[in-house]
TrEMBL record:
The keyword Transcription regulation applies. Coiled coil: none annotated. It comes from Sphaerisporangium rufum. The gene is lacI_5. Residues 23-78 form the HTH deoR-type domain. GO terms for molecular function: DNA-binding transcription factor activity; transcription cis-regulatory region binding. The keyword Mitochondrion does not apply. Residues 1-24 are annotated as: Disordered. It holds the Pfam family Peripla_BP_3. Residues 1-10 have a biased composition (Gly residues). Keywords: DNA-binding, Transcription, Transcription regulation. PROSITE patterns: HTH_DEOR_2. This is LacI family transcriptional regulator. Transmembrane segments: none annotated.
Length: 400
């Protein structure tokens, strides 16, 4: 029978293995391993001590706080030996005792710092580098630069397998101290990726994504925009202008769409507006070859349902819709008011589009701060943090 120790804070309460060392004994073993072998990665210590990587990270944090070892990128190292005191005048200096193993940090071990106090390195994986995410990345980099931290950025393709490959490279080859990631969380591959992130050797903060893991569905650490609130804010704005039939158009492939739709429906219900019988479409994005045909169908439905205002996610789809509306002789906003979600290029439309603007740079700064706190925190019982930041409504000509 095996299990973890009870009442030690090192894991869930189970029946203990009589042969397993107590936490203090395990930590003493870790200190001795580091003294004899120099720098060791978390995975190496976990294998030597036959415990999880999470337990090792907690032990490292505690031992470092007690001044018994020092933390390095991806693992731990013994304390540097103090320089010998100067001998009294006229007395010969003692000869150094040869060491069986070098005490310097190996230069060919991925993920290890090369001297005490070396700066942190974090990895970041986002699904796109050309829309929405540049401002998030900018926020991360600004905060990291102020803290003297290096950011290694990788762009993925909204595919869990690609994201897993990038993340594994950052951990295994770059030896990053932590990860910021906007992962795919749906489907079998997405669920497997979330499980991998849960057990990663380094701290992880999700960016503009949320996920729950384990039998009790514990939340992972995350920083997100409150897209539900943002969509509801757009509906309230349109309702305040007198619109009673407010529709919604979202993109099927976008992880943001379910939140936008939930906020739209919630606000309609709270305001007593019909959420049924108005244009309500979750459709392809404008890059799809079917977009032109689908767009005309959406506008036909908009007219048939007497929808007078639309919330559209995202900007490119909203701009394309406005252009086709104008070609059909419909005036914006006199005949149809439009609010878009994202505010990446909304101002470039004619007329400029009212838009909900997620706090992208603030998301990046908050995500970095949360990850840095998680890396630095010596408390093994630190609770999970979930940060939610509200978007803003930018009112322009398309709605008023």
């Amino acid at each position: 029978m095996t299990g973890t120790s009870t009442g030690s804070g090192d894991g869930p309460m189970t029946v203990s293995d009589p042969a397993a060392p107590l936490p203090d004994e395990r930590r003493a073993q870790a200190v001795e391993l580091l003294r004899r072998r120099g720098v060791l990665r978390v995975s190496e210590l976990a294998a030597e001590l036959d415990v999880s990587a999470i337990t090792v990270r907690r032990d490292i944090a505690l031992l470092a706080s007690q001044g018994l070892i020092r933390r390095v990128r991806g693992g731990a190292a013994p304390l540097a030996r103090p320089a010998p005191a100067e001998p009294p005048i006229g007395q010969a200096a003692p000869q150094p005792v040869p060491q069986a193993l070098p005490q310097t940090v190996p230069q060919n071990v991925p993920g290890t710092a090369h001297h005490p106090g070396s700066r942190l390195t974090i990895g970041m994986v986002v699904p796109s580098l050309d829309y929405y995410w540049p401002d998030v990345i900018r926020g991360v980099r600004e905060a990291a630069a102020a803290a003297g931290t290096r950011v290694v950025l990788r762009g993925a393709t909204y595919q869990a397998a690609d994201e897993r490959r990038q993340l594994s490279w950052l951990v295994d080859s770059m030896g990053v101290d932590g990860l910021l990631v906007a992962p795919t969380t749906t489907g079998q591959d997405g669920e497997a990726l979330v499980r991998w992130l849960q057990h990663a050797e380094v701290p992880v903060v999700l960016v503009e994504r949320a996920a729950a893991v384990g039998p009790y569905q514990e939340a992972m650490e995350s920083v997100v925009s409150d897209h539900v609130f943002g969509a509801a804010m757009a509906v309230r704005h349109l309702a305040a202008l007198g619109h009673r039939r407010i529709g919604v158009v979202t993109t099927m492939a976008s992880p943001t769409s379910p939140h936008v739709r939930r906020g739209w429906r919630r606000a309609c219900e709270e305001l007593g507006l019909p959420a049924d019988g108005v244009l309500d479409a979750d459709t392809v994005d404008r890059r799809d070859r079917e977009w032109s045909r689908v767009l005309d169908g959406l506008l036909d439905e908009c007219v048939a349902s007497r929808t007078t205002a639309l919330l559209v996610h995202s900007d490119p789809e909203a701009i394309s819709l406005v252009e086709r509306v104008q070609e059909r002789g419909v005036r914006v906003p006199a005949d149809l008011a439009v609010v878009t979600y994202d505010d990446e290029v909304a101002e470039l439309c004619d007329p400029p589009l009212t838009a909900v603007r997620p706090p992208k740079a603030a998301i990046g700064r908050a995500a970095f701060a949360l990850l840095a706190d998680r890396i630095a925190d010596r408390d093994a019982h630190r609770p999970v943090h979930r940060v939610v930041i509200e978007p803003r409504l930018i009112v322009r000509s398309s709605s008023s």
